[in-house]
Specification:
mainly beta; 26 strands; 2 helices; 11-stranded mixed sheet; 387 residues; globular; single chain; 4-stranded antiparallel sheet; 39% strand
Length: 387
């Protein structure tokens, strides 16, 4: 894609708060954000639970309906002219979010919207070297990317129902995966490994119309975290070192903001993008459960999506940050399911057939897509008036 077209892709109208009061908004303008994204008519959700898919579970040695209860939180990548989505699926055993077993399914599409699924998961808890990290909770919330030489890399949450950790796996075909284990296991700063951590967005760039993993200042770089965005670097994509501050403590580049849509959590979304403006990170913001801390325009507990731009020379430095979400729960399928407060949880982003396809989880229950056409100026989701 030409530099001019990519610049157009990063231009569009959005509603941005310029006052210290988050309920005072103005419309403006445009030079670093991505979107607006539109939901295609009458196609969402694009992936639903399926009680007909069965799988011989190696942990229980029994046949399971592995995606019977919920399918959500997808990663995405382009391969051989098709979009592939790696999505989280839950069986019916257990009650409530996080108390069932999650496995990762694979689906493919020639148009980015209509998907054909494999009948069995491609990543799942097994009697392997990762059993202590992945059983009985499973593998959750994949973020998927690819190197220039065609190695697919997925960062996901390893959940043993004791402590969530970021794990990494690699593949050449998206079907057969090699698990490498926790990304911080060999880090010099071991405190991160011994504390809960999740949600990794590795930095990519658009090359020859394809998003590929790229280095920043000579190393691979990721943003990660949910109670604030931190960073980490790597030379091999497998072993990662968290970025520390001047006091030798874990650095946090952004944190939740009282009175804003991201007042409770700032959880990293799909792979970040290196642009001529800086490094663009799309993230998931949760509105606080306490009314006095939340943005009053949105339901308490709601997950919406925001954007933040970091410096490419100093990836910890924030250049710009949206004060309102560009995507928020509006449709019925985004407000019904396991998480009824409303959720759009973005995890997959691809550039495909000259458009941007954003894949997200709906209420921790379904998978949906929103599309941005760079040749058109489209708005973000509208911001409601104060309640």
């Amino acid at each position: 894609m030409s530099n001019r077209l990519f610049s157009i892709a990063l231009l569009f109208l959005f509603v941005s708060c310029v006052s210290t009061k988050p309920d005072v908004a103005t419309t403006k303008d445009i030079v670093w954000t991505l979107g607006g994204f539109e939901r295609p008519n009458a196609v969402n959700p694009i992936i639903l639970p399926d009680s007909n898919s069965t799988f011989m579970d190696p942990m229980s040695d029994s046949l399971l309906r592995w995606e019977e209860n919920d399918t959500f939180n997808p990663g995405a990548v382009v391969k051989d002219g098709k979009v592939y989505v790696l999505y989280r699926a839950e069986d019916k055993f257990g009650i409530g979010i996080g108390f069932r077993t999650s496995r990762l399914g694979l689906a493919e599409s020639s148009d980015g919207i209509h998907f054909k699924r494999r009948k069995e998961p491609v990543l799942f808890p097994d009697k392997d070297s990762q059993r202590e990290y992945e059983w009985p909770g499973g593998l959750e919330d994949p973020r998927l990317a690819v190197t220039e030489d065609g190695t697919y890399v997925v960062f996901y949450t390893q959940w043993n129902r004791k402590m969530p950790r970021l794990g990494v796996a690699t593949s050449k075909d998206l079907i057969n995966w090699q698990k490498h284990g926790p990304i911080f296991k060999n880090a010099k700063y071991q405190k991160v490994y011994n504390e809960p951590h999740k949600s990794a967005s590795i930095v990519t760039s658009l090359k020859n119309d394809k998003l590929v993993i790229t280095k920043v200042n000579g190393k691979y770089l990721m943003y990660w975290g949910e109670h604030g965005v931190s960073g980490a670097t790597s030379r091999d994509l497998i072993n990662w070192e968290p970025i520390l501050d001047e006091e030798g403590k874990l650095a946090k580049f952004i944190t939740p903001r009282e009175g804003y849509f991201d007042s409770a959590l700032t959880e990293c979304g799909p792979p970040a993008i290196l642009t001529d403006k800086g490094i663009l990170l799309l993230y998931n913001g949760k509105n606080h459960d306490k009314k006095e801390l939340a943005d009053p325009r949105f339901n308490i507990g709601t997950y919406s999506a925001g954007q933040v731009l970091f410096s490419s020379t100093d990836p910890s430095n924030v250049i710009q940050r949206m004060d309102v979400p560009f995507l928020r729960p509006m449709e019925d399928f985004e407000k019904s399911g396991q998480y009824k407060d409303g959720t759009v949880f973005i995890q997959g982003l691809t550039y495909f057939k000259n458009k941007w396809f954003l894949y997200y989880g709906c209420a921790d229950s379904r998978v949906a897509v929103a599309v941005y056409d760079p040749t058109k100026l489209t708005d973000f989701d509208p911001v409601p008036e104060s309640k």
